[in-house]
C-alpha cells in the first residue's frame, strides 16, 4: 500500500515505526479513500474506452439498459452527496427526478424548445428547489427527516396529475426523443447513450471536484462530527442545505435524461417506490464512495431484470434478500467489496 | 512537584485571585456567565479573566460545568451574562463568528473526523482562513507536531491516541486562535504522551501568545503546567489561586468524593 506503512514492516519513516499505529483494513470504513489499486489510471482508461465502444458492439436493448444505468447513476451520485457524504436520509429524490423529467417534457414536447436547453433549466430549477427545501428540512434528522422527504416524494405525483392541462395528467406526456445529427450517422439509441455518457462523465467529474474541495471536506466533517465542525467555523446547516441542493440538481438532470431516453413521462413513473429504490441503491452501492452510485445503478437495473427471467415473483424477493445481505455483511456496499477485492489482488501481486 | 509555568512567581494563597487585577491587559473577561441545557441550568454565574498568552487550568468534579463553560465560550451552548474577548462581546454570536474572532476549542473526546486524512482534518481547521495563508499555517502546525507530518495522508481514525490528541490541538491551532479552550486533553493518554503534549502547549502559548483555558481532571498535571488554577464547583468558579497551592496544606474540594 502506498500510504500507511506500519511499524511491523519496518519500512516506514522513523516516526512511523515508533508509534506503531493500527492499520485499518481496506474497504471496512465508509469514506476511506486510500489508494488500493496501483493501476488506477490504466483501469479508468480501459473503462472509458469500453464505455465509448459499448453502443457499437452491443445490441440496442443492451445499449438502452446501459443508458438507464448511467441515468440512475447520475441520480444516485446526487443522492449519495446527501446520504453518503452528508449523513442524512432522503426519501424524496424521486420527486426531483420527476420535476426534471417534466421540465424536459413540457419544454420540448409542448413548447417546442430545442431539447438541449431543457438540461440547464432542469438543473437550475431543481437546484433552487433543493436548496429551498433543504434549508428547513435538514434541521431535522433521522425519522423526522425521513418523513418530511417522504412527503415531498408523495406530493409531487398528485400535483402533476392535478395540473393535467400542462402535464397531461395521469395519461402522461410524450417526449420527442433527441435524434442524432445526420453527420454522425448514429442510430437513435447510440446517440442517446453517448449523450447520457457525456453528461454522466461531467457529473462524475463535478462530484469528484466538489468532494475534494473545501465545501466537500466541510460536508464530510459535518457528517462525522457536527459540533467539532461547528467550532472550527463550518456552518453545518448551510453545508447540508447546499449538499441537498446539489443532489436535487443531479436528480433533476437525471430526470431530464430519463425523459429523453424513455420518450414518455407519466406520474406513475415517479412514485414513492422510485425514491425508496434510489435510497436502497445508494446503500447497496456504497454510501460515501464515488464508484458506489454506479454500482448501485447496475444493481437496480440488472438484478430485478435477471430475477424476472427466473420467475415472476422473484424480483422483489431477490432484491430484498440481496439488500439485507449487503447491509449486514458489507456495510460499505458493493464499492467497499470492490475495494477489498482490489486490495487483495494488488497485495497478491506484490504491488501493494 | 516542580512548578515552572511561565507566569509563575511566588504568590501567597491570600492574594486576590489573579485575573481580577489584570486591568485592561485581560484578553478574556467573563462576567456572570450563566448557561444550561433547556431547563437544566449548569452555570450559575462564572467570573473569569485571562491575560493574553496566559495558561489557566479549570479543575473540578464531574458535572460541575467545566465542559459547559467551554461550550458556552465557543458558542455551542447559549449563555447569558457577558463574555468579552478583547472588548468584543461573544455571547449571542454563532460559533463561526467566534472562531473568526480567535477562539478555538478542542472538544471533549477530540472530535476528529475519523475517515478524513490528517491533512484534511488540518485543512478543515483552516476553513475560515484566507487561502494564501493556509500553507504557512500548515507548516507552522507541523513544526509544532512533527509526528503528524509522517501521517499526513492517513485517515485520522488510524492514529494512536496521543497522535489523535496532537491532531486535535493542531487542527484548533490552524484557526490561528488567540484563545484556546482545551477540554481534557490528557484523557486516555499515557503520562509520557500527556507530558509531551503539555510541553508543546506551553511552548505554543508563550511563542504565539495564545491564551489557554484548560479543563483537566488530572489536577497534579494541570497545576504543574499552568500559571494558576481555578476550581469549578456546582456551576461557579469557587476557588482561584496560583498553581501549586494544593501543596500549601489545604486540600481543595475537588479531592473530596463527588456529590
TrEMBL record, chain A:
It is found in: Cell membrane. Its main location: membrane. Pfam families: BPD_transp_2. InterPro entries: ABC_transp_permease, LivM-like. Coiled coil: none annotated. One of its GO terms (molecular function) is branched-chain amino acid transmembrane transporter activity. Keywords: Cell membrane, Membrane, Transmembrane, Transmembrane helix. It is a multi-pass membrane protein. The keyword Transmembrane helix applies. One of its GO terms (cellular component) is plasma membrane. The chain crosses the membrane at residues 38-58, 64-83, 90-109, 115-134, 141-160, 191-211, 241-263, 317-338. This is Branched-chain amino acid ABC transporter permease. It comes from Planobispora longispora.
Automatic annotation (TrEMBL), chain B:
Keywords: Amino-acid transport, ATP-binding, Nucleotide-binding, Transport. Residues 28-259 form the ABC transporter domain. Pfam families: ABC_tran. Residues 1-22 are annotated as: Disordered. InterPro entries: AAA+_ATPase (IPR003593), ABC_transporter-like_ATP-bd (IPR003439), ABC_transporter-like_CS (IPR017871), BCAA_Transport_ATP-bd_LivF (IPR052156), P-loop_NTPase (IPR027417). GO terms for molecular function: ATP binding; ATP hydrolysis activity; branched-chain amino acid transmembrane transporter activity. One of its GO terms (biological process) is L-amino acid transport. PANTHER family: HIGH-AFFINITY BRANCHED-CHAIN AMINO ACID TRANSPORT ATP-BINDING PROTEIN LIVF. Belongs to the ABC transporter superfamily. This is ABC transporter ATP-binding protein. It comes from Planobispora longispora.
Amino acid at each position: 500500500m502506498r500510504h500507511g506503512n506500519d511499524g511491523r514492516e519496518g519500512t516506514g519513516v522513523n516516526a512511523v515505526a515508533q508509534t506503531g499505529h493500527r492499520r485499518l483494513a481496506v474497504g471496512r470504513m465508509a469514506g476511506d479513500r486510500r489508494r488500493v489499486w496501483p493501476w488506477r489510471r490504466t483501469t479508468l482508461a480501459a473503462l472509458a474506452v469500453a464505455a465509448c465502444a459499448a453502443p457499437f458492439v452491443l445490441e440496442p436493448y443492451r445499449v438502452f439498459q446501459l443508458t438507464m444505468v448511467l441515468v440512475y447513476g447520475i441520480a444516485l451520485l446526487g443522492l449519495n452527496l446527501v446520504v453518503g457524504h452528508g449523513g442524512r436520509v432522503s426519501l424524496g429524490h424521486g420527486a426531483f427526478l420527476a420535476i426534471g423529467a417534466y421540465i424536459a417534457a413540457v419544454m420540448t414536447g409542448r413548447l417546442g424548445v430545442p431539447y438541449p436547453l431543457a438540461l440547464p433549466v432542469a438543473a437550475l430549477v431543481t437546484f433552487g428547489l433543493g436548496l429551498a427545501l433543504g434549508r428547513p428540512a435538514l434541521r431535522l434528522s433521522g425519522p423526522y427527516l425521513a418523513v418530511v422527504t417522504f412527503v415531498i416524494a408523495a406530493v409531487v405525483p398528485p400535483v402533476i396529475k392535478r395540473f393535467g392541462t400542462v402535464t397531461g395528467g395521469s395519461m402522461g406526456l410524450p417526449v420527442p426523443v433527441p435524434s442524432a445529427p445526420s453527420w454522425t450517422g448514429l442510430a437513435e439509441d447510440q446517440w442517446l447513450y453517448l449523450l447520457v455518457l457525456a453528461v454522466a462523465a461531467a457529473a462524475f467529474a463535478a462530484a469528484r471536484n466538489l468532494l475534494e474541495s473545501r465545501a466537500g471536506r466541510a460536508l464530510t466533517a459535518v457528517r462525522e462530527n457536527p459540533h467539532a465542525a461547528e467550532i472550527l467555523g463550518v456552518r453545518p446547516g448551510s453545508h447540508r442545505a447546499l449538499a441537498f441542493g446539489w443532489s436535487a440538481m443531479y436528480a433533476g438532470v437525471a430526470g431530464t435524461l430519463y425523459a429523453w431516453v424513455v420518450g414518455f413521462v407519466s406520474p406513475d413513473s415517479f412514485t414513492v417506490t422510485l425514491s425508496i429504490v434510489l435510497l436502497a441503491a445508494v446503500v447497496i452501492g456504497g454510501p460515501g464512495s464515488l464508484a458506489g452510485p454506479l454500482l448501485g445503478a447496475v444493481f437496480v437495473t440488472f438484478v430485478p431484470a435477471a430475477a424476472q427471467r427466473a420467475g415472476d415473483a422473484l424480483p422483489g424477493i431477490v432484491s430484498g434478500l440481496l439488500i439485507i445481505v449487503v447491509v449486514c455483511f458489507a456495510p460499505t456496499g458493493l464499492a467497499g467489496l470492490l475495494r477489498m477485492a482490489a486490495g487483495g489482488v494488488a497485495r497478491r501481486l506484490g504491488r501493494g | 512537584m516542580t512548578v515552572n509555568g511561565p507566569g509563575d512567581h511566588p504568590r501567597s494563597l491570600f492574594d486576590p485571585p489573579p485575573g481580577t487585577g489584570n486591568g485592561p491587559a485581560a484578553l478574556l473577561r467573563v462576567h456572570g456567565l450563566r448557561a444550561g441545557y433547556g431547563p437544566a441550568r449548569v452555570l450559575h454565574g462564572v467570573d473569569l479573566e485571562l491575560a493574553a498568552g496566559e495558561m489557566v487550568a479549570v479543575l473540578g468534579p464531574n458535572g460541575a460545568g467545566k465542559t459547559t463553560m467551554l461550550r458556552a465560550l465557543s458558542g455551542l451552548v447559549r449563555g447569558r451574562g457577558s463574555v468579552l474577548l478583547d472588548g468584543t462581546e461573544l455571547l449571542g454570536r454563532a460559533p463561526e463568528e467566534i472562531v473568526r474572532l480567535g477562539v478555538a476549542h478542542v472538544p471533549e473526546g477530540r472530535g476528529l473526523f475519523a475517515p478524513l486524512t490528517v491533512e484534511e482534518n488540518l485543512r478543515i481547521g483552516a476553513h475560515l482562513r484566507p487561502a494564501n495563508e493556509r500553507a504557512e499555517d500548515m507548516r507552522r502546525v507541523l513544526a509544532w507536531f512533527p509526528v503528524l507530518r509522517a501521517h499526513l495522508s492517513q485517515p485520522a481514525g488510524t492514529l494512536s491516541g496521543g497522535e489523535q490528541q496532537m491532531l486535535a490541538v493542531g487542527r484548533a491551532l490552524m484557526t490561528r486562535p488567540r484563545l484556546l479552550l482545551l477540554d481534557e486533553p490528557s484523557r486516555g493518554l499515557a503520562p509520557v504522551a500527556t507530558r509531551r503534549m503539555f510541553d508543546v502547549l506551553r511552548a505554543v502559548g508563550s511563542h504565539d501568545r495564545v491564551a489557554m483555558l484548560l479543563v483537566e481532571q488530572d489536577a497534579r498535571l494541570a497545576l504543574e503546567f499552568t500559571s494558576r488554577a481555578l476550581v469549578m464547583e456546582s456551576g461557579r468558579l469557587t476557588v482561584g489561586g496560583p498553581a501549586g497551592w494544593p501543596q500549601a496544606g489545604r486540600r481543595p474540594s475537588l479531592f473530596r468524593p463527588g456529590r
